[in-house]
Amino acid sequence: MAKDEKARAKAQQVKGKLQKETGRAVGSERMAAKGRAKQAEGDARQAKEKAKDVFKH
Questions:
Q1: Rounded mean pLDDT of 18-24?
Q2: 3-state per-residue secondary structure call for 1-52
């Protein structure tokens, strides 16, 4: 299950980055902000999974 969560976190980071860059390209600060938020949420998920791994071992 941890691998699934890690994959979801990575996917969310990628989607957020894509949305952020698309927003910048078209000049939409709102879209860029949503992308940054999505990317940050993915970062937080990934950090949580890494912390779990540390305590597992």
A1: 97
A2: CHHHHHHHHHHHHHHHHHHHHHHHHHCCHHHHHHHHHHHHHHHHHHHHHHHH
The pTM for the full model equals 0.81
Handedness of CA 17, 23, 29, 34 (dihedral sign): negative
| Distance in angstroms (rounded) separating the CA atoms of residues 20 and 39 | 8
What lies within 8 Å, CB to CB, of 47 at 6+ separation is none
CA dihedral 25, 28, 31, 37 (to 10 degrees): 90
